[in-house]
Specification:
single chain, alpha/beta, 5-stranded mixed β-sheet, 11 helices, 13 strands, disordered N terminus
Length: about 260
């Protein structure tokens, strides 16, 4: 009888283990922030963030599904358990740490200003921007920066970065503040082949706004998942997987900015 009970217990344990290993984790991303995350013509989510996420899942030997979510609701969606992690170019900041936990950074970033070509803007003080129309994506550290540094400007916030870019291309913004790498990509890849705009000023690297880099957000109680993601990140850096993905999108290593 004892042997039978032991056999049943072992069988049950094996079943539970198999069920756990078959669990599908969900990755939340925005899908509106190329080249980091975007939707292709068929509606499929892709980009650097997505490919890094799927590579991490492969290292952890788990199945993963990518879920799209508007930026304004991306942290609430994680807390509501719509997905298990956010991989969406989210800066690691002290304010966000009050709601979520972050992995080690998977790339570092800076913000920057962009303006129409030959704008003549050289004064990046509140007085210099007074009366100018400045755009940024709502709910981002870029929006926080604009509100803090340029309170006397006419600030316009948009649901997506694409809408900020569109208004600038159409002459409705004097300047915008955005993440440096996507803006660099945008100003060099206009649809008509003629770039409307250019990056201006020095990169914005104030840690109050750009934090400690860009990390993967998980729920604060999910410390085990956070540790597994950190190990997987180290593994893909070591075996060349990260570099292969990086080189598809960028001419520099965004992990080191070199």
């Amino acid at each position: 009888m004892k042997k039978m009970l032991l056999a049943l217990a072992l069988a049950g344990s094996t079943l539970i283990s198999a069920q756990a290993s078959a669990e599908t984790l969900k990755i939340g991303t925005e899908g509106a922030y190329p080249p980091f995350n975007f939707q292709d013509a068929d509606g499929k989510l892709g980009g650097f963030d997505v490919e890094i996420g799927l590579a991490l899942c492969e290292k952890m030997k788990v199945e993963c599904e990518v879920v799209g979510q508007d930026w304004d609701g991306i942290i609430p969606g994680l807390l509501a358990k719509k997905y298990d992690m956010i991989i969406a170019s989210m800066f690691i900041t002290e304010e966000r740490k009050k709601q979520v936990a972050f992995t080690d950074p998977y790339y570092i970033a800076a913000m920057t200003h962009a303006a129409p070509k030959n704008s003549g803007i050289t004064d990046f003080t509140d007085e210099g921007m007074k009366g100018k129309t400045i755009g940024a994506q709502s709910g981002t550290t870029q929006a926080d920066y604009v509100a803090a540094v340029y309170p006397d400007a006419d600030i316009k916030l948009y649901p997506t970065q694409a809408e900020v870019n569109l208004d600038m291309a159409n002459g409705r913004l004097d300047v915008q503040v955005g993440d440096m790498i996507p803006l660099l990509d945008w100003v060099t890849k206009n649809e008509d082949g003629k770039a409307c705009c250019e990056l201006i000023g020095q990169p914005i690297t104030d840690k109050k706004f750009v934090g400690d880099g860009v990390g993967i957000a998980v729920r604060q109680e999910d410390s085990d998942l956070r540790e597994k993601l950190n190990k997987a990140l180290a593994d893909i850096r070591a075996d060349g997987t990260y570099k292969a993905i990086n080189d598809k999108y960028f001419s520099i290593d965004v992990y080191t900015m070199k």
